[in-house]
Specification:
Layout: H1 8-20, E1 26-30, H2 37-49, H3 62-69, E2 75-77, H4 88-98, E3 108-112, H5 120-131, E4 137-143, H6 151-154, E5 158-161, H7 167-177, H8 183-193, H9 197-206, H10 212-223, H11 226-236, H12 241-263, H13 270-278, H14 281-298, H15 304-310, E6 314-319, E7 326-329, E8 341-346, E9 349-361, E10 374-377, H16 380-407, E11 412-418, E12 424-430, H17 438-448, E13 451-456, H18 459-466, H19 477-480, H20 490-495, H21 502-505, H22 520-528, E14 536-539, E15 542-550, E16 555-560, E17 567-571, E18 576-579, H23 600-608, H24 631-642, H25 679-687
Parallel strand pairs: 1-4, 1-5, 2-3, 3-4, 12-13
Antiparallel strand pairs: 6-7, 6-9, 8-9, 8-10, 11-12, 14-15, 14-18, 15-16, 16-17
Length: 707
């Protein structure tokens, strides 16, 4: 890992895994443009393929050299520069190729240079491969912003964060790469790049100066002049998206430099230092997040005016109680941070809440109007009122629970909540049906002398409010991070091939588990590329019927047609579906010679034409007319010579043309004895020539004798 500049802490954490050859199957390399994450990806891939037992990567063996030069067949880059995003079709193709064993290397490695550009569908399609890869599979995901990936993807990868280089490390490397540059130019490039070697090298190569609008933006942002910032953004609405995106990326780099300078030890220009002194770290992070969202909008079909307008909406995330839903509020000149206690304006009046995330910017379409304001930070008096309300809620809960038992009401009390000003008590309960609680309301109102409200909720809402541990051993998803309940059906369990036992697919609340929704899209994508059970397919070993389908491994078990007791396993890419699903009576029959993979058509032709080679011989000379006799005629002549002359048949007279109504007489198989005929029949036969075969007469008519 000496080829990677700086990042000593990262190298130290990777050293044991490299030494013992137990690198993880998936890594998430995080760092801005020019941070060296591509170099780190090549070194990790070389270490996975290295055949040296002493040091990995050795950079001397054939496997390492192929990886570093980009010629290794088992190191695959999943990217299409002509497309703005990484599509789900590219991920499906990589998933299908994953189960083909490596050609020559120890592992099969997939590198995603633009992992942050994968849409949610593509990430869900990749999720199962990262979660349950084959033993030889490995994934390297490169991203500029870790938060752009789904939490499920991030949780299954080992994150490696690259850090900027110090002056002592970066300047000698730049001096070796650019010997014609002076020390002042090298130091200025290092300071403007924020310590990222790739960006410094780009500045020295291009020799570009920062845009005037960037300098103006930094000046106004440091002075907190919102009106002047608006005047700066209005002319930018006339720019095109491909012109706006580089400018926003330059602003992001400048703010990241200001954030690094604020943390200490990182040099920067005067304008960047002014921003670092005039803004807090939370404000800089919020501004960087807003600019990154604007860059994402630039890559979509969004107008530039909407992109510039998105930079002005600043909100904060407020939560009323632990585990409850998060709402957007206007901070209104307040600089809030996570964990602050605030008093907010709601439709029910002033309420007490917790700040989950400080000031940050969001797109206008994400805000539900009207956007209410944060009134103030909670004072000591507000904290005392809140503590009194909590004590009052506990007392009200116990009193209500006791009265429900005394009245014999079939309802289960969940919780009690009090308004911040004490004007209302709200009780939540569950019940199987409607409950007549009018008497209970009267008792509660006389006891607490305030407005009483009872609200019936469902069992899923109860689980969200109470909390607990699921069958997986983790806290309830609804109580941890789910904002809204998504519809879940039994069809999802069938699609994912889960057991339909209610105890295994139901949560503590008694309803279907919410986590069935998480991987549903991935399973739907896998089903599209897999045949159904009982499908009739053609394989390299012959045709057969699909008995089982493994969606995760993209493979099927096939019962062979020629040997029903024999079952083979094939990948989906190795078979051809002749009939998808179980056959119906109305389906046309499948031809016996239809076998595009096993070569059944050629075998059938060989059976139909066993003397195919003889037909390729030159034609025989034509015989004379006397010699051209068929085999059947020669056999008849030979049989006629062998028979005695007495048994020989009379020569057949010429056949008269048949009429449409008359039927052809049947031939006699053997000569029969002639019966005695009457005189009138003998006279008729004398007048007419005798016909071969038995004569037939019409039914119902007898021959009349002559008078």
């Amino acid at each position: 890992m000496d080829e990677l500049l700086g990042n000593e802490q990262l190298k130290t954490s990777l050293a044991p895994a490299l030494r013992e050859d137990r690198l993880s199957h998936s890594y998430l390399l995080c760092g801005p443009r020019g941070s060296g994450k591509h170099t780190l990806a090549r070194l990790l891939a070389a270490a996975m393929q290295c055949t040296s037992g002493d040091k990995r990567p050795c950079l001397r063996c054939a496997q390492c050299r192929k990886v570093l030069t980009g010629n290794h067949p088992d190191v695959i880059t999943v990217d299409d520069p002509s497309k703005k995003t990484v599509t789900v079709d590219q991920i499906r193709q990589a998933n299908a190729d994953l189960y083909i064993r490596p050609n020559e290397g120890r592992r099969k490695i997939y590198v995603f240079p633009r992992a942050m550009d994968m849409n949610p569908s593509a990430q869900n399609a990749l999720l199962k491969s990262i979660e349950e890869p084959p033993a030889y599979g490995a994934f390297l995901l490169l991203t500029d912003a870790e938060e752009k990936l789904l939490p499920t993807i991030r949780s299954r990868c080992v994150a490696l964060h690259l850090t900027p280089l110090s002056r002592e490390v970066c300047l000698p490397a730049l001096e070796r790469a650019f010997p014609q540059k002076t020390g002042t130019e090298l130091a200025d490039a290092w300071r403007r790049s924020g310590g990222w070697y790739g960006q410094a090298a780009e500045l020295l190569s291009a020799g570009r100066e920062p845009d005037e609008r960037t300098l103006r933006f930094l000046e106004l942002y440091a002075r907190r002049d919102k009106l002047a910032l608006t005047e700066l953004l209005v002319p930018m609405e006339r720019l095109k998206r491909d012109q706006l995106e580089p400018l926003l990326l330059e602003w992001i780099e400048s703010l990241e430099q200001a954030l690094a300078a604020r943390s200490g030890g990182m040099p920067a220009s005067d304008s960047v230092l002014a921003v670092s002194r005039g803004r807090t770290s939370q404000q800089l992070l919020a501004a960087i997040s807003a600019l990154r969202r604007s860059v994402e909008l630039c890559r979509g079909n969004i107008s530039v005016a909407a992109i510039c307008g998105a930079l002005h909406i600043t909100v904060c995330d407020i939560q009323f109680r632990s585990g409850s839903k998060i709402y957007y509020f206007d901070p209104d000149q307040l600089e809030l941070k996570s964990g602050d206690h605030v008093i907010i304006d709601t439709a029910r009046g002033a309420e007490y809440g917790y700040c989950v995330q400080g000031n940050h910017r969001v797109a206008p379409r994400e805000v539900v109007q009207p956007l209410r304001k944060v009134l103030r930070l909670a004072t000591e008096r507000d904290e005392a009122i809140h503590e009194d309300n909590l004590h009052k809620e506990k007392k009200a809960y116990d009193f209500c629970q006791r009265k429900i038992g005394e009245l014999g009401l079939e309802m289960q009390l969940v919780s009690a909540e009090s308004a911040f000003d004490g004007s209302k008590l709200l009780f939540f309960f569950t019940a199987d049906g409607r409950v007549d609680f009018r008497e209970l309301v009267k008792i509660l109102a006389s006891a607490f002398h305030t407005r009483i409200e009872l609200r019936q909720i469902g069992v899923r809402d109860k689980a969200k409010m109470v909390g607990g541990l699921g069958i997986c051993g983790r806290p309830f998803c609804c109580a941890q991070f789910l904002q809204d309940f998504q519809p879940v059906s039994i069809k999802m369990a069938k699609t994912q091939n889960l057991s339909l036992n209610p105890t295994k697919i139901s949560g503590t609340c008694g309803r279907l588990m919410c986590c069935l929704k998480y991987e549903q899209e991935a399973y739907e994508d896998l089903i599209k590329t897999s045949p159904k059970a009982d499908s009739f397919v053609d394989t390299p070993d012959g045709r057969g019927t699909v008995t089982a389908v493994n969606l995760m491994r993209q493979s099927v078990n096939v019962r062979m047609e020629h040997d029903p007791e024999e079952i083979h396993c094939y990948k989906n890419c190795d078979i051809c579906v002749l009939r998808n699903g179980k056959g119906k009576k109305t389906d046309p029959p499948i031809p016996d010679d239809l076998a595009p993979i096993s070569g059944g058509r050629e075998k059938k032709e060989e059976e139909l034409y066993p003397r195919f080679e003889r037909r390729l011989e030159p034609e025989q000379p034509v015989k004379e007319e006397g010699e051209q006799k068929s085999r059947r005629r020669r056999a008849k002549e030979r049989a006629a010579e062998e028979e005695p002359a007495a048994v020989q048949e009379q020569p057949k007279p010429e056949k008269a043309p048949k009429s449409k109504k008359e039927k052809a007489p049947k031939k006699e198989s053997q000569p029969k004895k002639e019966l005695p005929k009457p005189e009138y029949a003998a006279q008729e036969n004398a007048a007419e020539p005798e016909k071969p075969g038995r004569s037939r007469r019409r039914r119902g008519k007898k021959p009349q004798p002559e008078v």
